[in-house]
Design goal:
This is DUF7847 domain-containing protein. The protein is mainly α. The chain is built from 9 helices and no strands.
Length: about 260
């Protein structure tokens, strides 16, 4: 089993981003920040103002289409950043072409994992409902779903790196990503959990600050727009560091 050092991966990532930021951040802006910011502006106000426990309002068809397009663009952008991080000397244009070329493999892998997860959740919920009743089954199924999502997200944390660095197809990529994280689950799960918490706090703080400043100048509409744009930009910056760090972790475990 290959050794894993989160600290070393972080040091290498910060040095790489400092050196290659002029390539990484424009890609993140184009593929990660701009599409998400546009999608936020398409969202109905009542959807953005939802409170916990409130029933989700119906989304217009244009918003659903926008969500799918945004997902595809951001995935292509993610693969492009991984290409820049994993393949020394590659140009931005070459990285984009490679990311688009390998995108179907990533989409296929995600479709397989999503379908299998949905079937598994449905089976577990049905069995629990038969044993302990519907109400209890729903609560346990929710907990099981969250734990299952964390497990899958951790075991497949290096899927993007595998897809962009190796020529294999969908099944081969899934097997390789799964094998790489074998024996490192708890450390990677802790890393993922801490990262999600920290990034969420930072993003909410940035949205709040820019929203307040814009709100003082232009009212609620300006506050919402500025907060959305700032949040999308902040998320893109965080994604650059995250994906470069995952690329460094991948290199540690694969070589």
């Amino acid at each position: 089993m290959a050794a894993l050092s989160i600290g070393k991966a972080w040091e290498e990532s910060t040095a790489f981003v400092k050196r290659e930021g002029q390539l990484l951040f424009p890609v993140a802006l184009l593929f990660l920040a701009v599409p998400v910011a546009i999608l936020f502006q398409m969202m109905p106000p009542e959807f953005l103002q939802m409170t916990p426990g409130q029933k989700m309002p119906p989304l217009p068809g244009t918003v659903k289409l926008g969500m799918m397009i945004t997902a595809v663009i951001t995935l292509a952008g993610s693969l492009t950043i991984f290409a820049l991080a994993l393949k020394p000397g590659i140009s931005v244009g070459e990285a984009i072409r490679l990311g688009v070329q390998r995108l179907p493999v990533l989409l296929g892998a995600m479709l397989i994992v999503g379908t299998a997860s949905l079937l598994g959740i449905s089976l577990i919920a049905g069995l629990l409902a038969a044993v302990i009743g519907l109400a209890g089954a729903m609560r346990l199924a929710t907990v099981a779903t969250l734990l299952g999502m964390l497990y899958l997200a951790t075991r497949l944390l290096l899927l993007n790196a595998v897809v962009i660095d190796r020529p294999g197809g969908i099944v081969q990529s899934l097997k390789a990503a799964w094998a790489l994280t074998s024996g490192h689950f708890w450390r990677l799960a802790a890393f993922l959990a801490v990262l999600l918490i920290i990034s969420s706090v930072i993003q909410m703080a940035v949205q709040a600050v820019f929203g307040v400043i814009a709100g003082l100048a232009g009212g609620p509409a300006a506050a919402q727009a500025a907060g959305d744009v700032a949040g999308a930009a902040c998320s893109a910056v965080i994604q650059v560091y995250l994906q470069v760090m995952l690329a460094r972790i991948y290199r540690q475990l694969h070589g």
